[in-house]
Amino acid sequence: MAIQFIICLNKQGTVRLVRWYEQLDSNEDTQRYISNMYRLISARDHKNQSNFIESFTDKTKLVYKRYAGLYFIMGIDLADEESIYLSNIHLFVEVLDSFFGNVCELDIVFNFYKAYMVMDEMFIGGELQEMSKDVLLERLGNMDRLD
Amino acid sequence: MEKRLGLSNNGASNSNSNIRGLQIFIADLRSSQQSQEQERRIQAELSKIKQQFTSSRKKSDSSNKLAGYQRKKYVSKLAYIYITSNTTKLSDILFGLDEMVELLKSNVFSEKYMAYMTLEILYEHQEVVNRVDDLVTAQLVKDLAGSNDDTVALALNFIGVVGRLKNGLAYNDDVITEVFQIIRSPTAAEHLKKKAALSFLTLLKTNIDILTGDLQRQNHWIQRILSLLDDSQNYRLLLSVLPLIEFIARYVNPSQCVRLIPQLTQILYKCLIGGTSQLAETQFPAEYMFANVPNPWLITKLVSLLSVLIISRSEISENRAGLLQASNIDTDNLGKLRLCVSKAIELGTRDVSDPMERIVQNTILFSLINFASKLDPTEEALSNSATALCSLLISSETNIRYLALDSLVKLCAISEKTVIDSVCKKNLNLICRLLNNEKDQSILRKLVDLLYSFTNVDNVKIIVNHLLKFILTSRTISDNKMKRDISVKIAVLTEKYATDTNWFVEISLKLLSISSNATNNDDLIWERLSQIVVNNPQLHKITCEQLVDYLNNNNTSETIIATGAFLIGEYANLITEKISIGELFNLFTDKYFIVSNTTKCMILTTMIKLYKFAPEIGSAVIKFFQLELNSLDIELQTRSYEYLKIIQISNSIGNKALLDTLFSGMPSFNSRTNPLLRRLGNLPDSSVNNNSSLWLKVNKSEASLAGSPERRDESSSSVQNSTSPLSSMSSNNGIAPAPPLSRSRSRMNSNVTSPIKNNGINDSYYSRQNLSSNWREGFTRSISHRQGILYSSSLIKILYRITNPDIQQMSILQVSLTFINQTEWEMSGFNTETISYQLQDSPSYIIQNVESLSSTSIMPHKRIEQKFNITIRKPFEVEKSVIFNSHFKCGGSVQFLSLKIGIGMTSTLVNNVEQPGMTLPEYIGRWRQLREGLGNDGEYQLVVRPKKSGAQDLSSSLIQIMKRLGFQVVEQDSISNTVFASGIIHTKSTGNYGCLVKLKSAISSDGDSREIEITCRTTSAGSLSKYVVDCINYAL
């Protein structure tokens, strides 16, 4: 019923942002989990293949999109409809882009704490909390200016 | 590296919140080329920060304390070191935890933010939680209750982010109440309410007891939450509240939410119809639009909730209490909802150029089409939906093809066949063409699913031929798994729809002949074919004839050889016109040396059957067996020896009576369900429910089976499993099916005797334990709750958590215990001991992997942890569960606690709320089946008076209790005062057992109190039912 995690990886598979809204199975190793994900996604043909990976594990499917050198990935429940989450990713990237002003990977490296601020203003407990870009940017701008 | 993500180039957000020291540090690290150099830089920075932190601690003079900005800078550097080291440097930065807590107390927003953010990242690690959780939670509660909105927002975010990772928050009443206060407060700011709704959802997901634990609170709080929808103009708030309500409707109390249907319909209608209208006054506010279409988030969330509240015709049989059926919705609203569906179709098939806009409008389309089935759709509406989806199949965008197919598969599964058939007939060629051109594996998979779901008697030949051609020629499918899956589907389809028996045999054999290597699925296919052939006499001859043709080919697959060995062995006498028995013998002799040992075994059996038909080949057969007496394989050797002996005995007594008895004709198989159906994967259910046309013929001959000898080949054992009750429930989880009745019964018998044998245990170490005075409370709680308080006193609190570390092995449980020092003094010399009831003579459970305590001392208000595993090997009484002793010193005196943890048979139930339960008729069927199979042996009944009286609605609290235990409860309202529950009990050694429980509440005979009659039946004839009932009794 919701987003299980949001992960942002670069082309080399380095994690740039990661947020878990659900606990992984206790026998699952986080690093291995992410590198499996990276291997699967980076091997895909981005022209001829969809942005969805149906059964990543027996309780998670993946929705992802590549923007320049960064992959934005969401893990969602099997019963969820994929396409709305693709819009979620797109909205997230749009807001990052406007907030940082033409965002690039380095912005996220140097300002990781602000990137998380954007993420948390948009998603809580795996659900989208605001869909208006203007409202989000206004609020983020205010927070950014606070002491 | 510096490539922009490329969306826009607006002005930068630059502010004074940048931290220069951090930026320089990051730039430094990035400029160092070698990892050694980086490592040195990190270590230098770490020791500098450590020094700063310690010196600030030493100086009591407040003016010398670290300034907030400095602290924020150092904490942010620690966070970066953690991130950039890919979490490997966690232990190096733990020294900073106290300063992070200090930073959390700051009144400066950016400082507090940095602390919350860093802790959010680190909270996935248990050691971090253990060290600072109490302090963090205390500050969190303070921040929640504070008057600064920005601070409250940070605290709510924190709950939303870590609430599921760390269970404590969801059990902390202060946290829960503060969050709820914000939801209900009339004055709270909108963005706080949004956050509070979702934070509350996070807490609720972690601990559903927040609402289910107290009925009064439930009613009151749910009302408050639902009233947030009253302001239907406020779409912003809606977005966050809808998921919360959906969760409540699904898992807490659906009937309270049903009244929302008109309101939700109205909003959806306004969104879709208003949002696309050209008339200015009905138009949707521009900001709620996304990419020129009505807001897809709002629409998907509304539809998702409506789908929970409205049940379709096919779901009625499941008797889901409290939900509304389309026919009960007033015509006005139903009309509006249907209009929304057609609007979505209109919108979704509109031509737009912007890819994002297209995906959004399709999101709306798919979401509403999936929902349409709930609205008693007319045939016309259904075929409109299907046509719209088919038109998207030729889209050049992979995502859209994928999603359209996904929707089509779902639609076919729920719709009347006739409607879909008419649409799909038109598109059959298109779909088959796509099959050949598509490059995306997952789309291919969906295409196959779609073809599968609309196959019928008329088109089965066309579709099967296409699929066969596809697996033979396609170069796109690289993985064998997909080939195997398609093979299974072909096998199921041919069995289900074939009316032409020749064709059925032809296709089945072709399928077997192309299997490259013997796999599990292939085994199932040939076993199933053999069963069908055995049960249908008209197939005996033609199948064997065709098999001979295949066998004459040198490259034939091993599965064909196995099938041939079995079937020709049975019916060789029918094909002597085509090939003599002697020639068959030669044929199998040739094949014998190119196959695996399993198939060799079968050929040995074929040989003696051939001998039965034609004793004149005796000398050749005997020679053959004699040769195999030297086989290295023990099974082959044994078989050869035995068969040789049988021939010798037959010869010496001079007649074939022994041979004829031992190798008499195969009786009909008795398994109605095709085991292949289980291999179909995640196809929607209804498409696989139909009984096969060929199989129906079997039922007539079932009567003859009753008197048949217990003769089963290898092939039949796997099939037998599928007839044992309840196995279909477990198979969805990929868990091994329950053992057949006959086997589990004999096992249980040996088990029943064990308690008697163990009477000597009276004197055991276990029985000599002196349990602490109020152990029972925690014991009872741990039977019914997966986590909670095991023991609590003024000195110490012990929390427990019972989990299943491996979902594949539900018989293994992990117990985690947390000990919290409640005093102002240090506790030292902590040590613990686990004692199981029995260690030798095949114990019912064993304790394994006992981890040592995380520390042997606990500082005031701190905690330590310990974990161990319990493997449940066979059924046992919950009273014999694990005893857990702990010793520690506190304030000079030695303390000793001896507690029993309630691990019982119900602890192995799969607690899966997602999975649909049985319907009442299914339940009654199984109940009877168990009765017929086991009589009174598998049943146990107990009448109890519930301890907690006063709840008005006893049934619903019983349902909650059963669900909490992990049972699935049959949703029904036709029989009141009775709760029907089912589950699978898992054990390591004696396998899994199906278990049905009936709870009937009534007024007791003396008339002044309630009584509950608990009846339990299991697939085991032993005391398992009693053990289960005992657990339930504790939980009541």
Automatic annotation (TrEMBL), chain A:
Protein name: AP complex subunit sigma
Alphabetical GO biological process terms: intracellular protein transport; vesicle-mediated transport
Domain AP complex mu/sigma subunit, first and last residues per copy: 3-146
Keywords: Membrane, Protein transport, Transport
PANTHER family, per database record: ADAPTOR COMPLEXES SMALL SUBUNIT FAMILY (PTHR11753)
Any Gene Ontology CC annotation: AP-2 adaptor complex
Annotated signal peptide: none
InterPro entries: AP_complex_ssu (IPR016635), AP_mu_sigma_su (IPR022775), Clathrin_sm-chain_CS (IPR000804), Longin-like_dom_sf (IPR011012)
Protein localization: Endomembrane system
Ranges annotated as spanning the membrane: none
Domain of life: Eukaryota
A Pfam family assignment: Clat_adaptor_s
Keyword Lyase among UniProt keywords: no
Family: Belongs to the adaptor complexes small subunit family.
Entries under Gene3D superfamilies matching the protein: 3.30.450.60
From TrEMBL, chain B:
Clathrin adaptor alpha-adaptin appendage C-terminal subdomain domain location: 918-1028
GO CC entries: AP-2 adaptor complex; cellular bud neck
GO biological processes: clathrin-dependent endocytosis; intracellular protein transport
All residue ranges annotated as the Clathrin/coatomer adaptor adaptin-like N-terminal domain in the record: 39-648
Region (Disordered): 706-763
Keyword terms, alphabetized: Coated pit, Endocytosis, Membrane, Protein transport, Transport
Amino acid composition bias (Low complexity), ranges on this chain: 721-733
Places the protein is found: Endomembrane system; Membrane, Coated pit
Predominant location: membrane
Membrane topology listed for this record: Peripheral membrane protein
SUPFAM superfamilies: ARM repeat (SSF48371), Clathrin adaptor appendage domain (SSF49348), Subdomain of clathrin and coatomer appendage domain (SSF55711)
Pfam family, one: Alpha_adaptin_C
Domain of life: Eukaryota
Single GO molecular function: clathrin adaptor activity
UniProt biased composition (Polar residues): 747-763
Positions that bind a 1,2-diacyl-sn-glycero-3-phospho-(1D-myo-inositol-3,4,5-trisphosphate): R20, G21, Y69, K73, Y74, V75, S76, K77
Membership in a protein family: Belongs to the adaptor complexes large subunit family.
Function of the molecule: Adaptins are components of the adaptor complexes which link clathrin to receptors in coated vesicles. Clathrin-associated protein complexes are believed to interact with the cytoplasmic tails of membrane proteins, leading to their selection and concentration.
Protein name, as recorded: AP-2 complex subunit alpha
Organism in which the protein naturally occurs: Vanderwaltozyma polyspora (strain ATCC 22028 / DSM 70294 / BCRC 21397 / CBS 2163 / NBRC 10782 / NRRL Y-8283 / UCD 57-17) (Kluyveromyces polysporus)
